[in-house]
Amino acid sequence: MREPVHVLVDRLVYGGEGLARMDDGRAVFVPGVLPGERVLVRPLRKRKGTFVAELLSVLSPSPDRVAPPCSGELECTGATWPHIAYPAQVRHKEEILLDTLKRIGGLKPERLLPHIPAPRNNHYRLRTQFTVSTIQGRQAIGFFRQGTYTLIEVKNAFLLHPLINRTLDVVRSAVHLLPPLAEIHINASPGNEVHLLLFSGRDQLQPPEPFFETLQRSMPEVIGITGFANRKKAFSLGRDHLLLEAEGMTYRATEGNFYQVNWDQNRGMIRTVLELAGLTGTETVLDLYCGIGNFALPLAKQAKEVVGIESGFSAIEDAKRNAELNGIANARFFADDMDDGLKQLLAKKMRADVVVLDPPRAGATLKTTERVLAFVPRKIVYVSCNPSTLARDLKFFALFGFRLDRLRMIDMFPWTYHIECVAEMVREDAG
Known about the structure:
The chain has about 425 residues and is α/β, with parallel strands linked by helices.
């Protein structure tokens, strides 16, 4: 353990920490700080030649420092930036995004589009996964404190949609009617519907009908429950899907299939993807990691044809139903491993004018990015929730004749360090 030291915070980095330097020049990463602040810290451990420190006190606070809008762990868990005024959060995220692209990818956008701040920056999360632990003979529901296995039984959580907080309260009051569980997922829709997923580590899970009846009496918004035993579906009570609407489209999401947690911002992201795709009605669009059709369906309204690929069979079934639901006949969807699916399309001599990618946090695989190039697109629209993997993948495309034209940061996750953005790569000879 080292002695406390005074440091001046230089900037924020992806992950939410502040970067400072000790007197000997060594870097130290400090949570809970802002650029320009002089703070007292205790270096705790080394991380790849740098130190991670504990914040002891803020000696000269930034004008952007605010009192947290939530109280304690029960309300604040998940809010990694509760000390930063919201306008400053958005500004710092954009700075981190640009710095990451330059540092890792050697890239700078030719046109930085105005960022989209969240119209609602609290109680916005529509999907949440809770851990269940047995504490003193009862099933406790909450989140593990970061870096520990200490369960925090959150209540009125600041980032969670009110429907989820209300449902959690009712679930806790009836938890004695549930079998032993490992996780409970609560998914809500902007249309005031709630669906639950129950996960057991056991081989069998019986339908908890008394629990479902109790839940529906207290919360008519709960439309169904699905149970999984060792990740295999065991039962379904009530309706198995939620309905969501965005940009004139109706989407169904079945039994936990992915949809964006901040639906207001998802609308802005759809509009941005359409803007950057710049379709005229003659294009073939390839939508990778298409999910339930979040981008594919509105793209199909402006394209000649859209082909979507996703590894999840259930999500693709939703995408197909959603196309029918919205009267879209020029969208095709395939459930396949991404690399294998692209290989099959290439074997059929398919070409794509525009490729849209919305990969998970780990980004696209090298094989996927290689095969994207084989479709000879004039434009690649990349939706990212991780600036580091975005920079890596865009750098690869840049090596093969693509330039980073437009970039927009969309604040999908207020009060956290997480960054969502949409980037447009244009082939140099495509104009």
